[in-house]
Amino acid sequence: MSSLRTIGKWFFRFCLLVIFLAAFTWLGIHVSRAYYLRQASRPPSAFIVESGPLIALTHARVIDGTASPAQDDQTLILKNGMIAEVGPSSSIQVPASARSIDLSGKTVFPGLVMLHEHLFTISPDTTPTKILLVEQPVSFPLMYLAAGVTTLRTTGSIFPQADLAIKTAIDSGQRPGPDMFLTAPYLESNPLLFSQMHAIASPDEARRAVDEGAAEGMTSFKAYIHLTPEELKAGIDEAHSKGLKITGHLCSVGFTEAADMGIDGLEHGISVDTEFFPGKQPGICPPDRAAAKDIDERLDIESPEVQRLIHHLVERHVPITSTMAVFADFTDDAQPMSALEDREMRALCFKSALIYRILKAFVLPKIVMHHAMPKEMQFERDFVAAGGLLLAGSDPTGDGSTLAGYADQLEIELLVKAGFTPVEAIHVATQNGAVALGQSDRIGTIAKGKQADLVVVTGNPSTNISDIRNVDLVFRKGVGYSSARLFGAIKGLVGVQ
User: What CATH number labels 112-437?
Assistant: First the structure.
């Protein structure tokens, strides 16, 4: 009896300890999250470290975004948010009234213009049979800007009113963040990948969806996996009738067919084009695992069929948006956990981090593709060599670890791994994006008369592309934001609405 009482006492103490630890952990998570939410919700002034009507950036290395070689010892004069002068420090006279910043040992390149972004991520409540998305109105704008993204296009929306509200807050100066070109809710048919999507059932519904998105102020549209050829054509024609553009992450419709319909862009590259899948049925998306396996094991980028596709896209002036950062999660290029511990993992809320670890350990290894990434890289190289316009984006979804800002930097690193030089990769992520948005006269390169959207990093990305991660300052319209302050304000917030 005595021994039973003793066991009972220890069991009771153990239960109390478990309850205490659970309560302590819950309290710690929620208190710290509330603290960082307050930090992240502060006005832009809390993150601004350089401002004024006249700023001189002296003795900097400049990568101008045109794919030209980097130029050492350059000086930029920023006046009222614009680049007033740029050239060798020996020939630029710095006005006496200018706020002068010595950037010796640092590099300046244009603010990134990324063309496949979102304002949501995978929800921690996602299950193997139910994928949920959660809007990131606080963390993602800060993370994009902190990484050097000064302009972006959202490529598909789940919460359009929330996206519009975020854009309005940024444009009005209430919140820090990049300039955003918003894409309307996905144009998709059943079956739906994300439960928050609305299914389109006919060409007329596709046209109405475009009309509704345009009326709300969206500037582009995105066709998705199961949209039928008839629905896609209706959406393209309706968007074009309003002077707007439509891109696509397609499956039911192949790239060649979509290009002939007049689509304005294609997302992700050859990794999602199913037109070469054996037995592909018109207007039907093959099973995803079978299609992925076929691309991984059989598809030959050097084959006449794929090369004809590349030249056809170039002739039709259809850009391709590279999103290797998210694609890498399912290939041999997946980031090891150790690569995430230092930066990205700190941004994830506790629940998201736990889900991510489970997915990485038990789910993703079962579907890893060993040859698809090198094939995608070759496809993108061949596309550019043929004269195609290659764009870049991060697509912050995947397993939930592909995060805004961080993944945009990774995307540029992967372009270099694909065989582009560092200045070519930066060109893809700056000037090419500006061209695709019709904004190249204003942003995308460093030149006199352009908007002062600039990224200042320690090091030399023209020889070591990973130095793009060493962001010190991000200038948007001539106002300098501290990258460290922006990133420091979002700890534990990703995955929380």
Answer: 3.20.20.140
